[in-house]
Write a structure and sequence with these properties.
heterodimer; A: 768 residues; 6-stranded mixed beta sheet; 29% helix; B: 468 residues; 5-stranded mixed beta sheet; 5-stranded antiparallel beta sheet; 21% strand
Chain lengths: 768, 468
């Protein structure tokens, strides 16, 4: 089944925030962001801006009736800076004017007098100065200290991973409309309507029930609108509340890029120990997460980094420590993978360092350590593993040996072109790492004409969740998909929702919908059962016809609905689902935080132009653990899209701040995401069929985030190709692997004395 | 009154001609299908088609409406996604996108549909690679492009039976466009008779707008502008004896399509494919690239190596200026503010002259160069008779590397000469570190691309020695 929005998308008739018809009297807002990353605000000069034509009002911190606070997990983020400025782009004032142009022209006339303070952009420096978002977190499994003695080979190294701009093509924005009784209706381009509602309630000092937050769809989110949509919605709501006028703000791309956080850059130190059979016995890793100026979602992101620090491998002794470091960058935030990708890059780098030190192929170590069913992850959960099944199927299906031989031949025959290859296994846990968020509700109405309307907390942002929910309802009720409509997400219909994130939206909202539909169906079939003189258990419905032990009866969907209506039986149901059997103890760092894991293996092949340092991705060949996909079209799209986004993160996309904390890559001309030519020439996807039961909706495993991490393989494939040209090349574990890094590595000096410092740390302590 | 046709409607507006077409479409005509993505021509979400009547036939090209001033659509047919929608069914392009699941969040989708529709209306051969080239200026963040590629393949397939049929006619008959397109040529013809000529006032000249609107879109909206893009006197590519003469408003797309240039530069399309995107190539003019004075202007580098001469006019008198003398310093030009380029000319390469253009950017396509360079080298047997090397991104202006050229002239072309010249080259450049790369990288890259010129042009050279 195609995405239900497909027709309106291709005709340009889908409605996004900036497409909503404008109500008469609507005012337009634009934020003035701090030009300085760290400092004390002395004075804000607004006079000139206020005199600009069309300007209605300029709001600052003192106009906030409630609390000047939007921090979700930790209350450490003011909406407006009123004294201490923590990042460049931090809102200091909001201009409200009669037009967009007037608002942005006035913003340019605002002057802030700021006493600058020292700017820190490097998380290691922040950590050394004790600038942490929260106390360090760790996951400990076994005992690394004693395990080192059993290791015959030990390697250490340093990692530096850059961030990633979400680059949803629709920028952030909101439109707030005053309603009667001091209420507000707020259209927001958000993944988390409840978070927006909660934030506005706090800023305005009014109860949540006065805030209807409505989301039709997003033009992309990827995590960037999970928490960071709150700012813009709160600003619009504040202005609408104060002025009693509709207020809209859809950000300009450069405002969006400069003022919002991104995927967290990480630095890390690793130490890995193996025995002679290539079993990894011990792994010690310290992460320095660059959280930016405030907590945002960083604590949760950090938790997932720890959960995924061993990727798809079983390691008996692990000590993983993570520091969430406070720097003067915009608060970094959720991005597809949510800290998992960074943790997985580091273990892959550690394995690559070990393979290089041992002069063996990296895949030998990878394959030897894949996690097996009933082996424990460092956080205590036992694996129901498909890691080996995916790996082995990929190796045989795509004939890895033959690929390797062909690459070898190619490299022998070409001087200036070299191919490289990497195998990238993934393992990703599904559920919010914060257990209490794993719940959802679905409000299902059957109307008297037999049509069905469904409201859930899910936000459609291209991932196809509404299509899957519609499928769940039609399948459960046994009716045609045309009878079902999914409504815009609203805090007035479904309350206290979790954001659409963590790959879990279809599972949670799909199961809530299934629960509601099942209850409704039981209620309806009871009517037919009474008439047929049988028990409801003997009745089912298929293609809108009620079956008695498999045989059609005279009852159909419309008769069921009509009978219920005239007999005053409720045709509405609110289904609730809370993921069972998950738990996690923050104190001990142990538990069963995930409802299940998604596995997969990708083989990535690249070709490097060794004269120019440019490269192409030839192919990505995947065996992916779908469970049983309920929508192969949508799932394939998620995998292809995730792979290319992951490759972008690892190779092309470079978030560049200068030492003053100002973003240099602040537009699409300086921040490059993959275009059609940067996508792999070939992406092959094969299904791993599994019969195990799982907690996914209709056993169709979550597919949003996991495939992004296949992209990590591109970094290692490029490394492989560089080494084919220059076997002693100095290749620091720094991501992304841009054409610049590739060329510098291709022509790096060979000898040890010229290697960068972090490479010196790779010590081979093997006892032969 | 500025008149044009928007979809099926005749438009007459007194809004400032410097206003952006995107704003006009979305906020004045309330056609929200055209999306605002990046405001600088780099994402293609705002792609529309612009049709011009040329010798009685319509020619449609894709433009990014976020950089197109209203003044550049005078007397033309502007087509948004609303203007191609059929009642009751999808167009062939839309069906292909739908069938191939080539839309996820949908925000970039109208842009892709318009670019592919533009491909259907172009004379380009119905191949997958041409269909993909048509969407090289459209960014999608969701799909990973593979499904869009499958849709593009399907579109190419639909066009295959076209043979010699006029594209617009074929499109109208195959559910690619609605019927009203058939009457557009007549309507434009009628419109042209009522067109008030653009006022040729002493105002800021503007070409395609692809640089100026990125830099100054706030101020340009209200400014008096002199629109040069459509002036017939500034168009055209022609040969006179052994010179090639180009109108200043010749676009990059015009260069690519020129049979004359293709004959003299067999790899022209390979070079120019790396210059921005289809949409921007349809809009960007040669003179605009020169006058923007970017140290990494691709066309500046290309034409520097050809020792191009410019003809400047202040409206009264003309003067010639070699392109190499145009750039005084960073964004400083050797011309008075009221002078603009009317045309340019260069000597067509002789049969002993070889030419090559190299460009490396972070992303291979649709990106600004880290370093670009062009070379024109005339050989007399194995001796270098004449050589010009231009390089961008390695100094404050587009550079002509004169010392290196002087050193090589008259010498036997050998691997060791190239290696020696490569050292000299480094003394002529002063790259800085910025978002496009560190200074060290740019030096290494220039040295590599310098070698690439010779490896490309002289396959008999020993590559292994050169890259050592």
């Amino acid at each position: 089944m195609k995405n239900i929005d497909s027709n309106t998308h291709v005709t340009g008739t889908s409605v996004y925030l900036d497409d909503l018809p404008i109500l008469q009297g609507t005012l337009f807002a634009a934020a003035y962001g701090s030009p300085v990353a760290h400092g004390i605000l002395h004075q804000l000069e607004l006079t000139e801006a206020l005199q600009m034509p069309g300007v209605v009002r300029i709001l600052t911190a003192k106009d906030i009736p409630g609390e000047n606070q939007i921090g979700g997990i930790i209350p450490d983020e003011p909406l407006f800076a009123d004294h201490h400025i923590h990042f460049a782009g931090m809102p200091l004032a909001l201009v409200v004017a009669q037009s967009r142009d007037a608002a942005s022209a006035a913003v340019k006339k605002i002057r802030a007098i700021i006493d600058p303070l020292e700017v820190i952009t490097n998380p290691r420096i922040a950590q050394a100065q004790g600038a942490l978002i929260m106390p360090p977190k760790s996951v400990v499994h076994g005992d690394t200290e004693t395990a080192w003695a059993q290791c015959t080979h030990i390697f250490q190294g340093e990692i530096d991973i850059n961030g990633q701009e979400h680059l949803y093509i629709e920028t952030q924005g909101a439109y707030a409309l005053p309603q009667e009784h001091g209420s507000l209706k707020v259209y927001s381009s958000t993944q988390g309507p409840t978070a927006v509602q909660r934030t506005i309630a706090r800023v305005l000092g009014i109860p949540m029930h006065r805030l209807e937050v409505v989301v039709t769809r997003l033009g992309g989110g990827f995590g960037g609108k999970e928490d960071q949509a709150n700012t813009w919605a709160a600003l619009c709501a504040l202005a609408a509340h104060v002025l009693n006028k509709p207020v809209k703000y859809a950000l300009h791309r450069m405002e969006d890029m400069a003022m919002t956080g991104k995927r967290h850059p990480y630095m890390a130190d690793f130490k890995i120990g193996l025995d002679d059979a290539l079993k990894i016995l011990a792994y010690e890793v310290t992460f320095f997460q660059n959280a930016g100026a405030s907590a945002d979602l960083s604590p949760a992101v950090l938790q997932r980094t720890l959960f995924h620090c061993t990727n798809a491998y079983y390691i008996p002794n692990v000590t993983a420590t993570a520091f969430s470091c406070r720097t003067h960058l915009p608060p970094n935030t959720a991005f597809r993978g949510f800290g998992g990708p960074q943790g997985m890059y580091v273990i892959e780098a550690a394995i690559a360092a070990a393979a290089a030190g041992l002069h063996i192929d990296k895949t030998l170590i990878q394959r030897a350590n894949l996690i097996r069913t009933n082996e424990a992850f460092p956080y205590g959960q036992l694996a129901q593993s498909e890691a080996i099944a995916c790996w082995d199927k990929a190796v045989s299906l795509y004939d890895l040996d033959n690929m390797r031989a062909a690459i070898h031949t190619f490299n022998t025959e070409h001087l200036l072109l070299k191919k490289g290859m990497a195998v990238m296994p993934i393992c990703f846990g599904i559920s919010f790492t914060n257990t209490l968020m794993n719940n959802a509700r679905s409000l299902v109405h059957i109307y008297s004409d037999g049509s069905v309307g469904i409201s859930t907390g899910a936000v459609e942002m291209g991932q196809g969740v509404n299509t899957k929910i519609l499928q769940v309802a039609a399948r459960t009720l046994g009716i045609a998909v045309e009878r079902v409509k999914i409504n815009a997400t609203s805090t007035y219909t479904v309350a206290n929702t979790s954001p659409s994130a963590a790959s879990a939206t279809a599972d949670l909202n799909g199961k809530a919908t299934w629960t509601a539909c099942k209850t409704l169906l039981e209620r309806l079939l009871a009517l037919a059962a009474k008439d047929l003189g049988t028990a409801a258990e003997n009745l089912t419905i298929e293609n809108e016809v009620v079956l008695f032990n498999g045989t059609p009866t005279e009852w159909n969907w419309l008769r069921l609905v009509n009978t219920a209506f005239v007999q005053r039986v409720s045709l509405s149901e609110n289904g609730h689902y809370a993921t069972p059997s998950i738990h996690y103890d923050n104190e001990t760092g142990k538990g069963h935080p995930f409802s299940y894991h998604v596995y997969g293996t990708a083989i990535i092949e690249v070709t490097v132009d060794c004269l120019r340092g440019t490269y192409e991705t030839d192919s990505v060949k995947v065996v992916h653990d779908f469970g049983i996909s309920m929508n192969p079209d949508i799932d394939r799209g998620q995998i292809e899209g995730g792979i290319v986004q992951g490759i972008g993160w690892m190779t092309l996309e470079e978030v560049i701040y200068n030492q003053q904390g100002r973003l240099l890559s602040n537009a699409l001309s300086t921040y490059k995401v993959p275009d059609i030519y940067a996508a792999p020439k070939e992406i092959l996807i094969d299904h791993l069929h599994t019969d195990h039961d799982n907690l996914a909706i209709f056993r169709s495993k979550a597919v949003g985030e996991p495939p992004l991490m296949y992209g990590i393989g591109a970094w290692f494939a490029l490394r492989d190709a560089i080494l084919a040209f220059h076997p002693d090349a100095a290749i620091p574990f720094t991501a992304p692997m841009t054409p610049e890094r590739v060329l510098m590595a291709l022509y790096s000096k060979q000898s040890a004395e010229s290697k960068p410092a972090h490479e010196e740390k790779v010590s081979h302590l093997g006892i032969d | 009154m500025l008149r044009f046709i928007l979809n099926n409607d005749d438009i007459g507006t007194t809004l400032p001609p410097g206003m952006l077409l995107l704003d006009f479409i979305r906020y004045h005509q309330h056609l929200p299908g055209t999306k605002t993505g990046c405001n600088e021509g780099d994402c293609g979400a705002c792609t529309i088609l612009i049709g011009e009547l040329q010798n009685g036939a319509m020619h449609y090209s894709s433009f990014t409406s976020c950089l197109t001033p209203l003044g550049n659509v005078r007397g033309k047919h502007v087509v948004t996604i609303e203007g191609i929608n059929l009642s009751g069914s999808l167009t062939a392009v839309q069906s292909a996108m739908h069938e191939c699941t080539a839309t996820q969040c949908g925000f970039c989708t109208p842009g892709f549909v318009m670019s592919l529709t533009g491909f259907c209306l172009s004379q380009k051969a119905a191949t997958l690679s041409n269909a993909m080239a048509a969407i090289d200026g459209n960014i999608c963040r969701c799909t990973g492009y593979k499904s869009i590629e499958r849709a593009a393949a399907r579109v190419a397939q639909i066009l295959e039976p076209r043979n010699g049929t006029i594209p617009a006619q074929y499109a109208a008959n195959t559910h690619i466009l609605p019927d009203y397109f058939i009457n557009i040529p007549d309507r434009l013809q009628a419109l042209h008779s009522t067109l008030e000529p653009a006022q040729d006032v002493a105002a800021q000249p503007i070409g395609g707008g692809t640089d100026l609107y990125v830099q100054h879109h706030d101020t340009l909206k209200q400014k008096a502008l002199r629109f040069l893009y459509d002036q017939p006197a500034l168009k055209g590519i022609r040969q006179e004896g052994n010179t090639c003469i180009l109108g200043a408003a010749t676009t990059v797309a015009d260069l690519m399509a020129s049979p004359l240039l293709q004959a003299y530069f067999p790899y022209l399309s390979n070079y120019l494919k790396k210059v921005s995107s289809t949409q921007i190539r349809n809009m960007a003019t040669i003179a605009g690239n020169f006058i923007n004075a970017s140290p990494i202007g691709d066309l500046s580098i290309f034409f520097l190596a050809l020792d191009t001469t410019l003809v400047l006019s202040d409206g009264v008198k003309e003067r010639e200026l070699p392109l190499r003398q145009l750039f005084k310093g960073y964004k400083q030009l050797n011309k008075s503010p009221d002078e603009f380029i009317t045309r340019l000319w260069f000597y067509l390469p002789s049969q002993h002259t070889l030419f090559n253009f190299e460009k490396v950017s972070k992303r291979t396509h649709l990106d600004i160069a880290s370093v670009n360079t062009a070379i024109s080298i005339t050989m007399q047997y194995d001796i270098i008779e004449d050589i010009r090397i231009a390089a961008g991104g390695v100094g404050p202006v587009p550079l002509l590397l004169k010392e290196t050229a002087r050193f090589m002239t008259g010498k036997l072309l050998t691997e060791s000469l190239i290696r020696e010249a490569g050292f000299l080259l480094q003394t002529e450049v002063t790259p800085i570190s910025d978002a496009r790369g560190t200074a060290d990288y740019k030096r290494l890259l220039l040295s590599q691309l310098f070698k690439a010129h010779f490896i490309t042009l002289f396959p008999q050279l020993e590559t292994a020695i050169l890259i050592r």
